[in-house]
Amino acid sequence: MGAAALIFLAIIAVAVFAFVGMYNSLVQLRNRVKNAWSQIDVQLKRRHDLIPNLVETAKGYMTHERETLTAITDARSRAMGAGTVQDKGAAEAQLSGAISRFMVTVENYPDLKANQNFLALQEELTSTENKISFARQAYNDAVLFFNNKIEMFPSNVIAGMFNFRPQEFFEVEDATQREAPKVSFQR
Amino acid sequence: MMWELIAANRRKSFLLFAGMAALLLSLGYFIGEATIGQGGGGWIGVIIATAVWVIMSAASVFGGPELVLKMSHAREVTPDVAPQLFNVVEEMKVAAGLPRMPKIYIIDEKAPNAFATGLKPEDSSIAVTAGLITRLNRDELQGVIAHETSHIMNRDAQFLTLASIMLGSIVLISQVFLRGMWYSGGGASRRYRRKDSGSGGGGGAAIVLVAAIVLAILGPLFARLLYLSISRKREYLADACAVQLTRYPDGLASALEKISENDAPLDVANKVTAPMFIADPLALKGVNVSGWSSTHPPMSERIAILRAMSQGASLVSYEHAFAKATGKPSRLIPASALKADKDIAVRGPHPDVVKEQSEKQEARDVMDLMRAVNGYAFLVCACGLKIKVPPDMKETEIKCPRCGRANQIPRAQVSEFAQVAAAVGALVGSQTPASAGDIPFAQPVADAPGPQQPLEYHRRTPGEWETFACSCGHTLQLSPIFSAAQMKCPHCGTITRIS
Prior knowledge:
The structure holds two protein chains of two kinds.
Chain A: H1 2-59, H2 66-81, H3 85-106, H4 110-114, H5 116-151, H6 155-161, H7 175-178
Chain B: H1 2-35, H2 41-71, E1 74-76, H3 83-96, E2 103-107, E3 114-120, E4 123-129, H4 130-135, H5 138-153, H6 156-183, H7 187-195, H8 202-246, H9 249-261, H10 281-284, H11 299-307, H12 315-326, H13 335-339, H14 351-373, E5 377-380, E6 386-389, E7 397-399, E8 406-408, E9 413-414, H15 416-428, E10 455-457, E11 466-469, E12 475-478, E13 486-488, E14 495-498
Parallel strand pairs in B: 2-4, 10-14
Antiparallel strand pairs in B: 1-2, 3-4, 5-6, 7-8, 9-10, 11-12, 13-14
Helix pairs in contact in B: 1-2, 1-6, 1-8, 2-6, 3-5, 5-8, 5-9, 6-8, 9-11, 11-12
């Protein structure tokens, strides 16, 4: 009887350990997704902060491009107000589009392109665009991993019990908007 | 998936580490038994071996990364010194999800190279040489930084440091023991045994002594091979992860090409720090190291794998490319990581780089024009390289500097049609071949020894500089925009039709 009870206890102990381990790893993965999302947020905020400066610098030179400039400002405020992941994705894609159109128009203003302040801003913007796409890439990787874990046995049992929900991917609908705006900086 | 890869990596590191620890401890045990005496001696040996290891690891864990940076004469820089480098490192930090930005160091050396160090991802450093920054474009720099970031992410620096300490302890203990044996002529053990009342156990002691000697000789060798094989695997893995981070295999590939083209020595590298660099600085110095005894995989193989990755940037794609380039499965990446992997598309080059490359192409075109003016000959080898042949070159054959193929400088051929026409002409007795009427500058037949046969040359690469030899041996140039149907040799005046 003693041996049987011991084996039974051992099995229970192993089951409890596995259970705790799986639960903890799910929590860890969910936190990783959250962290990756906040990384995107950081980069997007940085872009939002750059835009007023950019528009302010460009305004003096681009008197005939009111529409392009207001498009950027509007897209920025829409992106800042967006709530869900999907809304945000769409709004930010729109902002990227507006910025890339702006960058094309800049080519017609050699005075603006010679402005040191503007050049520094432009460089900062290029790097920020890169960081946004890398942060998005890291977020989507983390989401994929988390969602896989939630769907796969045996962790799906625990995920169901504790209400772990699959997370949304940060997709960009339009393939042409996926690319960061072509910012070319002169050297 | 990268996360699974990291977990698998950690398990493997632990196993390997345990294996080396077992080797170290058994070495200590047998040497202790052989020298101090059977019975308690073995355990004293184990304690001594552990003590050696603890002291060595304490020294390197507390001062290791700083020491490596100091040995390499690296100085920490701020963002305003190298803004692009900082931006690229931050991009990779974001892509890899590192908890903190690595510290950035620059080594003032011409040879392009880089390494990462640090025991934890939270506290890591990346050092690059000044030559690397000046020679690489943004995409290539990104590839190199991604490779280093992958080392940090996979905790390779930590593993390599700990493993090399273990290796160092094993080597140290074996060396001390073997030297002791050598200088005392094996007397060490005899002396201690005599103290042991000297009676009996002689056979057993001899076996222990032999075991200790064998372990002391083979142990370091075995540990070194294990260490090297892991070190090479980590390099491949860091390449694979770098591509997954940047989604751009060609960036790292062309960076590695530029690094391996370099022949400036990296003076600050030594045997201890060499395994940490992206490209083995000692191998680049021209020391030919064979596969299993080097810390890095052969550069040509790494480049070939990366160049074969045109379909995707995932770990699976790397695995396929590895099999394609080397003809054997890599066994680098655990099946669980491969299964959960998804296909990732490769991105295009950075717009700045495209611009730079087109500028470079323009510069090359200008150089070609200068060469054409100066009488250089152009040959396009089958490997894609354009060979420029100086005008004073007399041979009709030239070896390609890249692939070694022998290339013949093409000659204008007598056209088949003209051959037939000439034969017909000779038969009928008329003075000129039929086709000669098309050529206004054809020399009168009377001047030629036989019936003048029009020459013909088939263009092989339209839109490129091309060269062929006239029947007199003089080389003729075809410029990329050449579109006329024939060409007159300025030397002998013979006309060649171009088709």
